[in-house]
Amino acid sequence: MKFVYDFAEGNKDLKDLLGGKGANLAEMTNLGLPVPPGFTITTEACQQYLHHGTHVDGLAAQIDEHLAALEEKMGRRLGDPADPLLVSVRSGAKFSMPGMMETVLNVGLNDASVDGLSRQAGGNDRFAWDSYRRLIQMFGKTVCDVPGHEFEQALDDAKTAKGVHDDVQLDADDLRALVAAYKKVFVKHTGHEFPQDPREQLDLATEAVFRSWNADRAVLYRRQERIPTDLGTAVNVVAMVFGNLGADSGTGVAFTRDPATGEQGVYGDYLSNAQGEDVVAGIRNTLPLADLEGLDKKSYDELMQIMATLEGHYRDLCDIEFTIERGKLWMLQTRVGKRTAAAAFTIAAQLVDEGVIDLDEALHRVSGAQLGQLMFPRFDLAGSPSSLTRGVGASPGAAYGHVVFTSQRAVEVAAEGKPVILVRRETNPDDLPGMIAANGILTSRGGKTSHAAVVARGMGKTCVCGADEMVVGRDSFTIGAETVREGDTISIDGTTGRVYLGEVPVRPSEVVQYFEGDLDPANANDPLVAAVHRIITHADSKRRLTVRTNADTGLDAARARRFGAQGIGLCRTEHMFLGDRRELVERLILARNETDRNEALAALQPLQRADFLEIFREMNGLPVTIRLIDPPLHEFLPSLEELAVKVAVAHEQGQRVEHDEQMLAAVRRMHEQNPMLGLRGVRLGLVIPGLFAMQVRAIAEAAVALAAEGGRPRPEIMVPLVGAVQELETVRTEAEKIITSIVGDSGVDILIGTMIEVPRAALTAGQIAEAAEFFSFGTNDLTQMAWGFSRDDVEGAFFWRYLELGIFGISPFESIDADGVGRLVRIAAEEGRAARPGLKLGVCGEHGGDPDSVHFFHEVGLDYVSCSPFRVPIARLEAGRAAVTSEGSDHR
Ligand code: ADP
Ligand code: MG
Ligand code: MG
Predict the structure, then answer these.
(1) pTM to 2 decimals?
(2) Substitution candidate for ligand 1 out of 35, 104, 280, 321 with most atoms within 8 A of CB
(3) Of 109, 431, 506, 698, which residue is least crowded by CB atoms under 10 Å?
């Protein structure tokens, strides 16, 4: 098996095998850009290494071969004491996981070659010893788990001893002493000397990069980002170039457009006399990239040209890492850049305007998840909140919460159910749990490319960074005379970078206002609203799936309709049994004879009719699927414990409480071990005479009433929890009789169908279709029953472990389990349609608004998805994307 690829052998489409970094290094090499030579060890080698836990057969020989070729090309041998070749050993997975895995620079240095390196650099001892101390530090931390802060402490001690602030102020002797100190730290923690053999360094670093795929923070990040656990990382071995050779050298990062807004221009940071990781780590204050023009015009111009080449080539925003070694520019990385959700839409629309991509491609480049982020509320500044300071708006959103200063506190306070803002000088990968727990992140250092900014953007979490007026201490921060302590509340605006004291009220986002119809996309001089309008309109023109909403009230129905819902896919009737109607429901449940029961039902019926009429009016002309009552009736009664106590206390005091006693007896009688699998759904309708009939009558009467007003009601009656066609037939026969008697010649047409949510229903769909005019997949129950677990019990109890073990990539309640539950959907869809061509198929339940699931339902051939009102635009967008994707694959 081929495990090692020279950069000249790869290309950008080999991300699976070479990782994103390796594939793009190869692509740049082949574009003729100045990339230091090197090779990539494949993700397959990593997978094998992780699987066997030892060396990979044949890998060492292939590395030998490619290393020899690299040495040949460079005219130097790895770690040669006289004239050493040094390399970096860099992780790089298919999906970018910023800062999650490891990189070791300057591999090949040792006590002998450090002098050779100095001679190479014209007798620059300072540079050579700085490079050596960096190697020991990175190697120690990454390969041997030496606690990084001990190295940092040693560095701080060296600076303090010398009375300087900046590591560039340390001279060669200081650094030589620092290397000695680092080596002591190394021995103390590993029990052995820092390895002097260059090839051993390379192999150990390679294996450490492999292992870093499974580091806790990488695992956590993948779970958060839904990245599969089994991909592995590639390893890139790259000839070193040096940005720390003096004032004519340096290192930087750049974007071809502003990653927050998509505006074209020069964006990035530059740090002179530094090695790569210094920029991102925020160790020293960086210069804006535009300043490079004054420092080194030739390199600057070349960089601008390369950036234009890359944008043209990738047809998208790219981000870039580069190093200048003594006036010579080297490209060290590029990729299609991460961006905020707003920028994703505006950039896609801009590129369409520029004629670079078409609208189908634009649709590919945005996602429902991003649209969801844009629907977050914004701060309402009408009350002129007190502004504390301003930093860089690094990841949009409006967040407030209790201030905490450590990742651990963030996790603890969030576990108490409180919103949290994590405040740090700068974040590092160890802060990931706290960043996930927090509502927002605020740092005093670093820019849009800092760890905090990149990770927060990736997670869609509000982040303000580089608020440099802020002095962050252990349990408080100060800004001028103002002190904010742990537990105080602040609000941060990730768009403007503003930080406010206290909790600032929020208002709906522009995108929501647009969907509400309050913002005209043609008038709005907001490029984001215009971009969203344009792209979602295109999605609507492409999608095959209809999008309906789940709504139980006229209010929800009206909002969802404004958001583009084309009907109601699920109207739950149980809420109509709550509130002041509870008493009637109790009467119904406690009824001892037919008369009592009929009285209670008769009292409920006009109330239900009014509810339905309101909803039909709001959805005039569009289908409305009403589910007959589904939950077990005891859910409408007080709990067993509550009643038992009440009755016991009354008896204690010698009182008789007849009503409560009756109720207690009823609750005892109705108690179920497994209510989820008990007397509910269609079973209720078959057991409690008149219950379903009352609902059907209310629906038919409401429909006739709307028709009489001149409206066009399109009710669909949905029977829940059917497992056998006989159940549905029994309900249907009764319902049809009622409907016929009410509808008469009003022209109202009412469909009768069923949910498919019991596995048996899916497996006998061919029979059930004989009695159903439509199926609606209740994927929540179908998931519970297919897996045999109840959602409420399992999510807290063991899902975390299943996610950790990779049994789930993501909770099957969040995204449909295509292999198992999805298979049931497929079977039911195929067999249902075979039995009744034209059978209408939809899905209701959480999955209807989940981007990945929408693609699955499109592919299975359903007619519609139904989701909560706020998810309707997301489902529209994703349904459009699914249509365009499958169109694309047809051509192939
Ligand atoms: P990450 O994925 O965290 O960005 P990288 O592998 O890109 O890690 O490396 C970390 C830093 O080291 C980057 O700034 C990169 O530009 C720099 N770097 C990597 N390889 C080299 C090299 N061969 N010469 C000089 N700098 C390098
Ligand atoms: Mg990098
Ligand atoms: Mg259900």
Answers:
(1) 0.79
(2) 321
(3) 506
